[in-house]
């Protein structure tokens, strides 16, 4: 997977992945800490702002959409397992 920050683009292999601005920011924050758990509160503040720090249901929805889009672009199935939930804590990127 390639995250092209200046262009705001994501590619899985040669396949571009069409992400919303929030999905892109969520992925960018997770990729900035490969292998480390990023707390739900930190993700919410980084992507939605301080006023949303308790809205964890947003994360469930957006992570689900992000996983689906990454999986659709990757025929090997690796991208579908890239984002792992850490129940009660947050999410992390694996395989980096």
What this model shows, in words?
The chain is of the alpha+beta class. It has helices at 21-31, 40-47, 56-73, and strands at 2-4, 9-12, 15-17, 38-39, 83-86, 90-93. Strand 5 and strand 6 form a beta hairpin. Helix 1 packs across helix 3 (56-73). The chain is globular. The mean pLDDT is 91.
Global Rg:
13 Å
Q: Could you report the average pLDDT, rounded to the nearest whole number?
A: 91
Distance linking N and C termini: 10 Å
- Overall geometric form: globular
Which ranges are low-confidence, i.e. pLDDT below 50, for 5 or more consecutive residues?
A: none
Count of helix runs: 3
How many E strands? Answer: 6
User: Helix proportion of residues, in percent?
Assistant: 25-40%
User: How would you characterize the largest beta sheet?
Assistant: 3 strands, antiparallel
What is the topology, as strand order, of the major beta sheet? 1-2-3
- Share of β-strand residues: 15-25%
Class from helix and strand fractions: alpha+beta
Order of helices and strands: EEEHEHHEE
């Amino acid at each position: 997977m390639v995250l092209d920050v200046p262009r705001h683009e994501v590619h899985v292999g040669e396949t571009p992945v069409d992400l919303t601005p929030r999905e892109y920011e969520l992925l960018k924050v997770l990729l900035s800490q490969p292998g480390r758990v990023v707390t739900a509160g930190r993700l919410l503040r980084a992507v939605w702002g301080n006023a949303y720090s308790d809205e964890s249901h947003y994360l469930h929805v957006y992570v689900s959409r992000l996983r689906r889009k990454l999986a659709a672009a990757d025929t090997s199935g690796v991208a579908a397992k890239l984002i792992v939930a850490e129940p009660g804590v947050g999410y992390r990127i694996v395989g980096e």
